Amino acid sequence: MATTALRTGLKTPKRLVAGLLAGAALTGVLAACAPARRQTSARIPIQFWTLDLAPKFNDYLNGVIARWEQQNPCYDVVWTDVPWGSVERKLLAAVFARTAPDVVNLNPLFAANLASKGGLQPLEPLLPQGAAETYLPLIWQAGQSAAADGQPQQFAIPWYLTARITLANSQLLSQAGYDAPPRSWAEVPAYAEAVKRRTGRYALFVTVVPEDSAELLESLVQMGVTLLDQRQRAAFNTPAGRRAFAFWSDLYRRGLLPREVVSQGYRRAIELYQSGELAQVGSGAEFLRSIQTNAPQVAAATRPYPPLTGANGAANVAVMTLAIPRQSKVAGPATRFALFLTDANNQARFAEQARVLPSSTGALRQVEEALADEQPSTQAEQLVRQARLLSAQTLSSARVLVPASPGVKRLQAIVYTQLQRAMLGQISSDAALAEAERQWNAYAAGRWP
Hints:
By secondary structure, the chain is of the alpha+beta class. It has three domains: 4-161 and 318-365, Periplasmic binding protein-like II (D-Maltodextrin-Binding Protein, domain 2), CATH 3.40.190.10; 165-205 and 259-306, Periplasmic binding protein-like II (D-Maltodextrin-Binding Protein, domain 2); 217-256 and 407-449, no CATH class. The protein has 18 helices and 13 strands. Strands 1, 2, 3, 4, 7, 11, 12 and 13 form an eight-stranded mixed sheet that branches. The protein has a three-stranded antiparallel sheet with strand order 9-8-10. A two-stranded antiparallel sheet has the order 5-6. Strand 2, helix 2 (58-71) and strand 3 form a beta-alpha-beta unit. It starts with a strand and ends with a helix.
């Protein structure tokens, strides 16, 4: 088994990316340890799963666990770190074996799928009054999903975040006649044309590979498209949807997007940017360090800018959450531990060590103050600091643009496949949109009669 119980020895996960599931229900066990239990040292275990955080964050997480256990002497938090590539399989196997963890690090999409099947504990009965007010409001909403009965409920507590900003090659911008890249999608066509005409390069790369990045689907939301209605039926075949489909198909047909956007994923965007063939790329602030390592000359010309948005200024954010599986017999203390792990002080420390952003409003203030006070000794570190501060400031208008709902990956596949057909000139963009609507509604009718 690749799962590693961290309190007793760890293996090396490689990425800080996503996670999965955790504890649920009973309050009777919460009442506290009975004296007899204390005398026999029979502490109640809380199984806690994370994703690819060991061994880099062993000291941090073991320290948080130790402090919580001091305040809650009846419980013993058993931390297990699971490799990203096997987490869904391991978690589902644990659920079927009725050995699911009590607290688990999840991405919103997987949490939504589990919640829709009744696999997660609704948190409203377990949360203390005012708990939601300590988190960024739009980020807190990312933990909401439809329950098995279709009604929205809070199933997850937000933990750490990454916000997309624009990293742009200032030399290519200058050659194209721009001081800064565009802030809104409406400005992109003229910008893309200027970059191509004056530099011979491309302005941006947004993949339409169905199983890859959701950036293009998110751009539709930023352009005013509502993806689904309350019955999970298609709501995107509207004037806004038609304009958005025409936007992308026209860019491609005019040769203003790399031809590979229909066949290669986000990794190709990175390759093109680092080779100096792309004017900008949307990424997290820490990606700047990779550019500095892999392409020093491009990095020297790279500057951070605010992300592309729509008319309402909404930026995208990726959220990692903590959830409580319904099987948990210690849902109350498991929820208390999740709230402790995500409180302002603990999140601020983790954000600094992991170079991520916090979901706690108090932690975000601490991170912004620390970044403002930093005095980097090199130009490279100064740029990273600037990018991180910009990312933190972006959170004031950031949200999860594509709500995590069951079937959203199917929706992305349908939309991208039909948009590809429009880009390649096989059908009109309006016809592609109508076909995407037909295919999604056929799927939705079977899943949500």
